[in-house]
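Hi U.,

Before I forget, here's the chain from the pilot set. I'm dumping it here mostly so it's searchable later in email.
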Amino acid sequence: MLSATELQVRGRHKDLLPATTLQVPPGTLLLAQADGQDTRTTLALTLAGRMRPSSGAASWGRDPDIAHLRRHTALLDAPNVNEPERHLSVKDLVAEDLALVPRKFRDRTRPAAWLARHGYSDLADKWVEELEPGRRLALLVDLALADADVDVLVVDSPDRHTDDAQDWLPLLQRLADGNGKDGGDDDGGRRLTVVATVGSVPGCWDGTVAHVGAQPGAAEPEPVAHVGPTTLVTDARAVVVGPTTKPLEQTEEPQETR
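Structure:
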């Protein structure tokens, strides 16, 4: 289980991430809604173990070590952190990402062969900026899952690339269900823990939601169910996490801890 307890990141003038507590079991897709890209990226970085919080802790399973969390978590597409350069070729992106996979899992085939084997041969000669949002995310997911130790995917703001949730939401749900990118068994049947930080929750989504920094008791459309300020009910259709007051729009950029 991916757990965060009173996870907080303080900036010079205000919180980059308000105190947040949540639990995400294996086989679950959680949409974590937060206002402001800095807040969303900070949450993604801390949940993936790439940034040490000012207070609180995040962990995977029963091991509290941040290195264990980092080893089993893949951070995808965080702006100004690890999102692919727009003017990078797809072949170069594949080569770079596969080079980061631990040696025992590393695929030593050439990028063009890897792309063909995973169904992306049509992308081989394209630039990253040319990719459609759905294919772009699927490619990043497959590159992340080249590391067999990855059990958790944290995807930063997939909704920033498209207004259509169908470009990313069904894929992430299939990954949580263990059905692979195309509904098959492409990813070894791994039932992943998946968290996507989003600016707004799609109207078609009736799964688990965390509203980071929301004010408990504020009016929300159904079926949102408000619970305690730092409590997450994993089987609820929607939950609220964070402090009792909504933070101001963030202006400070989070820094990654390597």
